[in-house]
Amino acid sequence: MRRPTCLPHNLECRPARLYTVVVKIALAQINPTIGDFRGNVDRHADFARKAAERGAELVVFPELSICGYPPRDLVELPSFVARARLALEELAQQFPALPIIAGFPSPAGSETGKSVMNSAALLRDGRIDFVQSKRLLPTYDVYDEARTFAPAAAQELFTLNGRRVALTICEDAWNDKAFWSRRLYGTDPVEDLVRAGAEIVLNISGSPFHVGKQALRRAMLASLARQHNVPVLLVNQVGGNDSLVFDGSSLALSPQGEVIATGRSFEEDLILVDTDAMTGDLHPAIEAEEESTLAALVLGTRDYVTKCGFSKVVVGLSGGIDSALTAVIATEALGVANVIGVGMPSEYSSEGSVTDARELAANLGIRFEIVPIKDIFSSFRTALGKVFAGTKEDVTEENLQARSRGAILMAVANKFNALVLTTGNKSEVAVGYCTLYGDMVGGLAVISDVPKTMVYRLSRFINQRAGRAVIPDSSLTKPPSAELRPDQKDSDSLPPYEVLDRILEEYVENLKSVDEIVRLTGFDKETVCFVVRLINRSEYKRQQAAPGIRISTKAFGIGRRFPIAARHQDS
Q1: What are the residues whose beta carbons fall under 8 Å from the beta carbon of 476, sequence distance 6 or more?
Q2: Which candidate, 56, 210, 318, 499, has a CA 20 to 30 Å from the CA of 517?
Q3: 111 with 157, same domain?
Q4: Do 475 and 356 contact (CB within 8 A), yes or no?
């Protein structure tokens, strides 16, 4: 993660200006669906009407709001870009008296390079009056905008109510040399626009969530406002699109870097800002780690399931903490009527596991079914008896149990037109402590970016918030186990999760080497090497896994692209 060189209060401020810029600006943080032009226009229109009723003189929507962000390779389809233009024109015609800023993909107008640009349009007097395109196209982590978009060569100001306004798009505001110790680009669009006379800076964003992102975003924008002595207003998309969750949390800051308006986190919102009085709506945001993580997982699950056309989900309930947390998230996201829990005990399952799964389902009020796998597993053994003759039972038989459960979950999902939610956490996925086509089957890996230690923290938070044991106490206190052989425990195969998760954080998120991890943590080098080898050799599993919801700075998936057929061993 890029980090600031100094705290904002250390920045040198320019002489104060008198501001009578646009009096009332509405920040409309909406939840668009990618490619749903009809639905997205209707959502824009609904928020524009509400903004007009509240006396707004300009309403501003997020990055690529007309088509949804990120559209990825859809923008390579000429029909997609053409439909976006038609949707934009329709919106302009609906509100000729209210200026609107909305994001859309626009043709690049060049015979070479990319065919489209990431743009924003000012809609005024029933038409597209001004278009600004993004200059800085991020290509790190989950971003791949240079793959599909051409950068703007330059940007201009537009005038509203006699005032000069800078319109920037997300990354355009993330290259302030006074804030970052290492800048990623040689140009700073905000600096250029302020030098050209901007009296206010607008930023329309599709800025995805990770733990701590809201505080980082606020500090960065406060630095920007203070350095250039201008008010800065950011409107951020909200909602889940595939692996990414957008938290909203829109905000406005005075030239002194003071927060004057905030939007709600993880829900749609309309925030009115008076840029003359430097006041605005202060709606409650969510920043506490457990609360914001849980809210992100709930929103990401709800939007993934519903935007993919499903309404119901199936969760395998083992009595363990991972499946319990997944079931709670699913229930909060979709409601009790839309979650089916399935217990699949084997001959190695303890009675307590079945009891805990049943208790959890009762606490949540969800449907719960028991489908034992003992006979199914026995049939597999019989069928493979001749093939396996003369060999000892090993992980093969353990995987057969997991794959039996996977088949049952998929059958239930098919029968009830539901989506299977996998329950593996980040610690397990990292080291391959999971079974392909077994416990990895499903359409969404809800907690695959949540380390095991965080699973426990979130589960305790849920019980504390509810004032009762929604997740049974025994699920929180018993030793973790896959229960695929007699008396099996996770600790038989892995280091303690407190150790594993710290190594995982340093190696995957902070990109530290084995020797650096040993120095930082004091852990035994053999243990660190063991974990790193497991992480490296499990890449083939992760790339066959269901997409997961990103809540960290480095999740497995589109933000971490490692080769499968490789022999690199940091250990």
Answers
A1: 321, 456, 459, 460, 463
A2: 210
A3: yes
A4: yes
Which pLDDT tens digit goes with each residue over 221-261? 999 999 999 999 999 999 999 999 999 999 999 999 999 99
Pairing relation of β-strands 100-107 and 116-124? antiparallel
Domain contains 499: no
Specify the amino acid at residue 430.
Answer: A
- Angle at CA of residue 188, ends 15 and 197, nearest 5°: 45
Burial class (CB in 10 A: 0-12, 13-18, 19+), 202: buried
Please give the residue range of the domain that contains residue 369. 292-490
Residue pLDDT, tens place only, 97-119: 999 999 999 999 876 688 999 99
Contact 423, 439 (CB under 8 A): yes
* Residue carrying structure tokens 């890449």: 539
pTM > 0.90 = yes
Reported confidence tier of residue 8, pLDDT bands at 50, 70, 90: very low
DSSP 4-26: BSS-GGGSPPPPP------SEEE
pLDDT tops 50 at residue 187: yes
Beta-carbon contacts of residue 350 (< 8 Å; ≥ 6 apart): 319, 483
For 302, 421, 546, the CA distances from 410, given in Å and listed in that order, are 20, 10, 13
Out of 257, 279, 301, a domain closes at 279
CA dihedral 488, 490, 493, 499 (to 10 degrees): -160
Decide which of 249, 279, 309 is a domain's last residue: 279
Residue 467: per-residue pLDDT? 96
Structural contact between residues 549 and 528, judged by C-beta atoms closer than 8 angstroms: no
Q: Which residues are catalytic?
A: 63, 134, 170
Q: Tell me how far apart the alpha carbons of residues 135 and 188 are, in angstroms, rounded to a whole number.
A: 9
Instruction: Please give the Cα distance from 301 to 305 (Å, whole number).
Output: 6
d(CA 62, CA 54): 19
Alpha helices for 308-431 (secondary structure H): 321-334, 351-364, 374-383, 395-415, 426-431
Nearest to 297 by CA among 221, 368, 245, 235: 245
Mean pLDDT of the chain: 92
